[in-house]
Amino acid sequence: MKVSVNFKTDKLPVAYRLGMLSIIKECLKNGAPEIYELYFTSHIPKPYTFSVYLQNYKFQETDISLTGFQLNITSPDYQFMIPFLNGLQKINRFQYKHYHFQRELIRFAGDQEIRSNRILVQTLSPILVEDEQHKPLSPHDPAYNQQFQIITERISQSLRGKALRSPVTIRPVSVKKTVIKEQNDSYLRAREEKRVSGDYLFFTAYSGRFILEGDPVDLQWLVDSGCGLRSGQGFGHIQLESEVNP
Predict the structure, then answer these.
(1) Fold of 2-109
(2) Residues 118-243, CATH architecture
(3) Rounded CA separation 246/241 (Å)
């Protein structure tokens, strides 16, 4: 299920993904508190991803001035999406720190059915792949494809309770490096405890077009739930551009 929600606001923090996550959490709390507890009181992978389209924006030092934004969220898990939508429809105004968001139009997008074992995808939010030492990998690194496979297999076991039907490979077509300035709860705690000194975390991810190859069922799952690391924090949102003939 794919949903797009428009919000009106004049300001967002530069590290805005945590603000988007606060919207998702508040919707779940209002829609089904037990589902919120299931997904957000543990470190299990989240069954969704999201991307954000900023409207008429201008970056400043710590904030983004804009006229609004569109939150795009996708998940194949109705146990997550139905409570999220129920909560979303109950709330018109959201607050994150000193930022205020007015909810406007909610739209549903059609699902993209995949029948081929090879697809061309476009990122809506950048894909993050890191090695075991948390070092970011470039899609042109020989280890990238193997690490993507390891990550995908691990998340499949956690979210679906089963292995991939066959290995999923990823190949860059036209990509660019995207350095994301972000914060999260664990980093903010570490900063309060003076274990880190910087204001932000930096993630090196990649946007653009990729070829994914694997079983159509697995490819469908990746398009519907996101791929790579930190999909629940707004990375790895992809959309089907076309199926590719062998």
Answers:
(1) Alpha-Beta Plaits (3.30.70)
(2) 2-Layer Sandwich (3.30)
(3) 16
Return d(Cα 134, Cα 95) in angstroms, integer: 32
How many Å apart are CA 36 and CA 126, to the nearest integer? 26
For residue 195 the two structure tokens come to: 């274990």
* C-beta separation of 231 from 76 below 8 A: no
Percent of the chain whose predicted confidence (pLDDT) is above 90: 83
Kindly state the helix (H) or strand (E) to which residue 99 belongs, with its residue range. strand 99-109
Q: How many CA atoms lie within 13 A of 77 on its CB side?
A: 18
Q: 63-83, pLDDT tens digit by residue?
A: 999 999 999 999 999 999 999
CB 95 within 8 A of CB 102: no
Q: Which pLDDT score, from 0 to 100, does residue 187 have?
A: 66
Cα distances (angstroms) measured from residue 146 to each of 2, 72, 86, 127, 188: 29, 29, 39, 15, 32
Model pLDDT, residue 200? 77
Residue ranges of the chain whose pLDDT lies below 50 = none
Q: Which residues is 51 bridged to in the sheet?
A: 72
